[in-house]
Amino acid sequence: MGDHAPILQADSVSLRFGGIRALTEVSFAVRQGEVFSVIGPNGAGKTSMLNIVSGRYRPTEGRILFDGGEITRMRPNRRAAIGIGRTFQNLALFGHMSVLDNIMVGRHHLLRSGFLSGMAWWIGGAQREELAHRREVEEIIDFLGIQHIRKAQAGTLSYGLRKQVELARAVALRPKLLLLDEPMAGMNLEEKEEMARTILDLNEEWGMTIMMIEHDMDVVMDISHRVMVLDFGRKLTEGRPEEVLVHPEVRRAYLGEDDAAPAETVPA
């Protein structure tokens, strides 16, 4: 990972809402081909940072670079078109639609003929194009191992399966950078293990760069190449998981360790 150039770079990014500072001069880089996790206590600014990268928020100060170009003022749909996909902390599926159709929505910006093209759907290239996209979606369904629910209504599925479908919809963009906002939240142990395997497969087999917010420290330490820690909107540190875990400020802010506590008393 060390030799790979950054695909994403944040330079001195700050974000204010009125008099409240959500982020203060945060700089970091995500390298091509890595799993980069952002951790920190509640209110640390993690989701705000992800919203700036995806374009939902515009930074008050600083800039964002992606794949060699500045995207600070670019709209979210343009960011999706150039290769930034994301999932949301709160599920954003269409409950009345099938799993297959939910994932197709993730590719709609790629349909040159338009997602809802009326009668033109059946004329010339529009139908062929839609079928090609459907084949791509079927490949994603196979890769993620959710063939058994492809025709099910999304709203009828368990929470863990709905999270898998939302991930599939983000992956349908075949993004260069995939942003995951607490992908394990609300899952049981078995579902977490399945999601962790899926994230690793996307990274290792499909070469997808991943930036992830996650509270489960075991998962973060197991699958991340590097970790950044935020606290009260400021960056505490960044590095390999084993380096971050022993950082004294991280132990205080994230693990609640007292200065005087010996290292061996802190739970792993």
Automatic annotation (TrEMBL):
Gene3D superfamilies assigned to the protein according to its UniProt record, in alphabetical order: P-loop containing nucleotide triphosphate hydrolases
Domain ABC transporter: 8-257
Domain of life: Bacteria
Any one GO molecular function term: ATP hydrolysis activity
A GO cellular component entry from the record: plasma membrane
CDD domains: ABC_Mj1267_LivG_branched
InterPro entries registered for this protein in UniProt: AAA+_ATPase, ABC_AA/LPS_Transport, ABC_transporter-like_ATP-bd, BCA_ABC_TP_C, P-loop_NTPase
Keywords, sorted A to Z: ATP-binding, Nucleotide-binding, Transport
Name this protein carries in UniProt: ABC transporter ATP-binding protein
Species assigned in the record: Roseomonas indoligenes
